[in-house]
Design a protein that fits this description.
Number of strands: 26
Structural class: alpha+beta
Helix content: 40-55%
Distance between the termini: 45 Å
Strand content: 15-25%
Radius of gyration: 38 Å
Strand order of the largest sheet: 9-16-11-12-13
Length: 580
């Protein structure tokens, strides 16, 4: 090298501790950036003031308020159906976008797995080349190959967090909780396969001599793959479940109230919305023949969680996946968190498991069940009246039908309330009432029979009569429409703690807060990665500014040496001239 110099060995300036810090920081930065980029899409979708759910809900309940004011108007009834269809379309559009994100997430997992396999093969090949180079000339380490291998490890680490163990000059690379990816010159292989518990999800599996084993995605952290899995698990799927829960609660509560009303033909109302059933998926490795079904029993009690049903040969364990809450039982049907689980057929084998998703299809499966405006049940099915010959000051209320549906079979039967002498009690006659006599009278107290409740106030006289019967010709009655519109503010979601709008606002708020938190943490992680890289480069890297300054210094030294030689030459020339 140069003239007169023998180079015994060229070594890399490499700091293992700083290199490990760089790997850790870059893996966390890649995970945070991926998660943040993906959650922004959900946040922008749900929080959009024009395309979100809030304006569609507002329009729908505005139409119901208008119907309550004009119950006989065909236009008002058609507006309710049109705005209801628009609300259904909005739920489906939001769910469709979330489903597209889910499909894109699956594709990204597949792409990351392919990239990881490629890096693993290249690292294993470099391990082999480095071992050959070391054995051929131990005094000349293959520094260029070592640099290439470190660069590949860094690229792999940006896909998924890795742990590197050096053994006899080779790198052994591990992922997750110690799953080997590269062992010396032998690369491992990952596969992107349908999750055996939920085929709609792409899971990461490792291929081995004993077969393909699906890895727990909670253990696959760091890098773009870790960020994608965290986004899907922590943000996308819970958001879709929550949107489905709101749709199911809306459909169930609106249907319940609508079935207690009366349409323009005098018939009791039917379902206003069609709703989806819970999804039950058997694990792909199940050995039994059991088939389970689930139905919604109480929509307000639903959670936004998925559940796993497991059988150990003696009993069943139902685990709520959002918080790990466990319920055990041995027989069916079972009612848990608002849904009824039934063993439809077959027999389970020990070790079988089933994934139960009560709300995942709620938004996609929502549909409007009515097409005829005349079938909108805006009226109450009962009417009250006071006899024309009453002499007291008693006043009977309009009455209301109480739930839950179906309505009492004697709801519209004629019932008469007649006061005794003295008028401190009354007798009741009518089908389904049991014809009680001497019922104590309390002014303003509730009187309930056959699924309705009325009140009588004032001071009725002896012999005064009041009747409750069918609401014949009640086309201008909007009492049930008022109750339908009032559901907008009622606590119907999450065990009665939130309204439809409130639950959606809470969902938007959670996603927004998570997005902001990820923005901050992602920026911080990127800064840490940059600082770690600069610290590593200060030891092992090339500083261009420093090299430029050194070049100038060497150039000046060269020019100075040239000047010395020039002066020396002139001096010798002068001495020679003087000697002559």
């Amino acid at each position: 090298l140069g003239q007169g110099t023998h180079v015994a060995r060229i070594e890399r300036l490499y700091n293992q501790f700083l290199a490990q810090q760089v790997l850790s920081a870059e893996s966390a930065a890649a995970e945070g950036a991926t998660h943040y980029e993906r959650i922004q899409q959900v946040d922008n979708l749900l929080a959009d003031t024009a395309a979100g759910l809030a304006p569609a809900l507002s329009d729908y309940f505005g139409a119901l308020h208008d119907l309550a004011t004009h119950p006989a108007s065909t236009v008002a009834r058609q507006t309710v159906l049109s705005s209801g269809q628009a609300l259904v379309a909005r739920f489906r559009m939001l769910d469709s976008r979330l489903e597209e994100m889910h499909a894109a997430s699956n594709r990204q997992v597949e792409a990351s797995v392919a990239a990881i396999n490629g890096y693993a093969r290249q690292i294993a090949a470099l391990n082999e080349r480095i071992a050959l180079a070391d054995s051929s000339d131990g005094a000349a380490p293959p520094n260029d190959l070592l640099d290439q291998r470190d660069a590949l490890v860094a690229q792999l680490n940006r896909e998924i967090r890795v742990t590197v163990v050096r053994q006899d000059g080779a790198y052994n690379v591990f992922i997750g909780n110690g799953q080997p990816l590269v062992m010396g010159t032998v690369p491992g292989r990952l596969s992107a396969v349908p999750d055996p518990q939920d085929p709609t999800r792409i899971a990461v599996a490792v291929e081995s001599s004993v077969g393909t084993v699906v890895l727990k995605e909670e253990l696959l952290t760091g890098g773009r793959l870790g960020g994608e899995l965290a986004f899907r698990r922590e943000t996308l799927e819970p958001a879709r479940n929550e949107l489905g829960r709101i749709a199911l609660v809306l459909a169930a509560t609106m249907n319940d109230q609508h079935r207690l009303g009366q349409d323009l033909q005098g018939n009791l109302g039917g379902d206003l919305f069609a709703m989806a059933s819970p999804r039950v998926t058997a694990h792909g490795a199940n050995g039994g023949s059991a088939v389970f079904t689930a139905v919604i029993a109480d929509a307000s009690a639903l959670t936004a969680s998925d559940y796993r049903l497991s059988y150990d040969g003696a009993g069943y364990t139902l685990t709520r996946l959002s918080d790990g809450n466990v319920t055990t039982f041995t027989a069916f049907p079972q009612t848990v968190d608002g849904f009824i689980l039934t063993l439809a057929s077959g027999v389970a084998a020990a070790g079988d498991s089933f994934l139960i998703q009560p709300t995942v299809d709620g938004a996609r499966g929502l549909a409007l069940a009515l097409a005829d405006p005349a079938r909108v049940a805006a009226a109450a099915p009962i009417a009250t009246a006071a006899a024309s010959g009453n002499t007291g000051s008693g006043v009977i209320s309009a009455g209301e039908v109480v739930g839950p549906p179906p309505a009492d079979p004697n709801l519209q039967a004629q019932v008469t309330i007649e006061f005794n002498d003295p008028p401190t009690s009354f007798n009741v006659t009518g089908l389904g009432t049991g014809d009680p006599v001497g019922v104590p009278y309390t002014p303003g107290g509730s009187i309930a029979y056959n699924g309705w409740v009325i009140t009588i106030t004032g001071a009725p006289a002896a012999g005064d009569r009041f009747t409750v019967g069918p609401n014949t010709g009640g086309v201008s009655d909007g009492r049930n429409a008022v109750k339908l519109a009032a559901l907008a503010q009622a606590g119907t979601v999450a065990g009665g703690t939130a309204s439809y709008q409130g639950a959606y606002a809470a969902l938007v708020g959670r996603i927004g807060n998570a997005t902001r938190e990820l923005e901050v943490t992602s920026t911080a992680q990127s800064n840490l990665a940059r600082q770690a890289g600069e610290a590593f480069a200060a030891v092992a890297g090339v500083n261009l500014d420093e090299e430029a300054a050194a070049l100038l210094r060497y150039q000046q030294a060269y020019l100075a040496a040239g000047k010395v030689m020039q002066i020396a030459s002139r001096l010798f020339d002068t001495l020679l001239e003087l000697g002559r």
